[in-house]
Specification:
Layout (H helix, E strand, L loop, with lengths): L9 H13 L4 H8 L3 H9 L1 H9 L16 H16 L6 H16 L4 H17 L3
Helix pairs in contact: 1-4, 2-3, 5-6, 6-7
Subcellular location: Nucleus
GO molecular function: DNA binding
Organism: Trichogramma kaykai
Length: about 130
């Protein structure tokens, strides 16, 4: 019989961290005690510093989801605006050109390159082109 997934709040996660700091027990034992899997315990302990920092800042203790980081949204939107302007002037735009422009924007905004984000942006722009033509 499969068990329903259990979402833990920030308060629950901090309680697990504090319990594991007091008592030395395996991930499996802790998972059985708190009603979650051993991988969940491992993930909580990996994020221990961030979770304790949020808890110390009196963040929303009952929140069960974390907000996604949106660092690349500015780069995405600026690259897309450039893409639309280029297409409006009938300039042929290929993937390499989009990547280069995204790198320039990233260097200007962040002063460093983000190759993983650039690949994501290229895929995002391909989706936009398929959905709508500027």
């Amino acid at each position: 019989m499969s068990q329903k997934r259990k979402r833990l709040s920030l308060e629950d996660k901090v309680a697990i961290i504090q319990e594991l700091q007091k008592v030395n027990m395996s991930y499996r034992e802790a998972g059985e005690k708190f009603g979650v899997g051993k991988t969940v315990i491992g993930d909580i302990l990996k994020e221990k510093d961030d979770l304790l920092k949020l808890y110390a800042q009196n963040s929303n203790l009952t929140a069960k989801k974390k907000f996604k980081k949106t660092g690349g949204v500015t780069i995405d939107s600026l690259t897309y605006e450039w893409f639309c302007r280029a297409r409006a002037h009938n300039i042929p735009v290929i993937g390499v050109l989009i990547q280069e422009k995204a790198r320039e924007i990233a260097v200007e905004l962040l002063k460093k390159t983000q190759d993983d984000r650039l690949a994501y942006m290229l895929n995002m722009l391909k989706r936009y082109v398929k959905e709508q033509i500027c």
